[in-house]
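Appendix C reproduces, verbatim, an entry submitted by the partner laboratory led by Prof. M.T., so that reviewers can inspect both the input and the predicted structure.
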Amino acid sequence: DAEVLRADIERPGSRVLLAERDGALHACAHVSEDDGAGYFGMFSVRPEQQGNGIGHRLLAEAERIAGEEWGCREMRMTVIDVREELLAWYLRRGYQRTGEYKPFPYGDERFGIPKRPDLRFELLRKPLG
């Protein structure tokens, strides 16, 4: 929501990244420093733009910021573990599954209204540099 986004924009060690082309927003993500590591989240690429490399470039920029500008040694993220295609995309980019899980925030509509009762987040990690 707007309040959470404003806090992310204003917080030190936090950036919201936008990928635009011809004045249109095609992708966005949030990168932050969290306990000495980079954290990547709120990643979205317009469906018609998926597969053209824009998401890969946005992720690479987030990793560059975390590693080069903030001195983080690894990037972390959480992904809904039933999203096998998305998990495979991250694994191809060097992320590793950890087997560590966090519960899905059922009841918090900021995360959407889930259509199934078995969702959870898995922590992924990637060494930087």
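The beta strands are 14-21, 24-34, 37-45, 74-80, 96-103, 120-127. Additional entries are available on request from the coordinating office.
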